[in-house]
Amino acid sequence: MPESTPPRKKAAAPTPERSSAPKASPSWWVPVMVGLMVLGLIWIVVFYITQQAYPIPGIGLWNLGIGFAIAMAGFIMTTRWR
């Protein structure tokens, strides 16, 4: 019995090359990141200097939480900075 010829393999399409280097952050990233950290720090300092009366009167210790949240947003941005 004659042997059949093996099926021909299709030529693989070349895969697009990916650059292994991570993309750089946008130019606005660092100023916003530093600005959030500084704003959070200023918020907390104002809260303590004014004896818990400002920056937003009437919400008490929530001012401290807001200040920490703003600063933490800046610190979280540092993990994405390239």
UniProtKB/TrEMBL annotation:
Name of the featured protein: Cell division protein CrgA
One Gene Ontology biological process: cell division
Record's subcellular location: Cell membrane
Primary location class: membrane
Keywords: Cell cycle, Cell division, Cell membrane, Membrane, Transmembrane, Transmembrane helix
Function: Involved in cell division.
Region listing for Disordered, in residue ranges: 1-25
Family (UniProt): Belongs to the CrgA family.
Family annotation (HAMAP family): CrgA (MF_00631)
Organism taxonomic ancestry: Bacteria, Bacillati, Actinomycetota, Actinomycetes, Micrococcales
Family annotation (Pfam families): CrgA
InterPro entries hit by this protein: CrgA
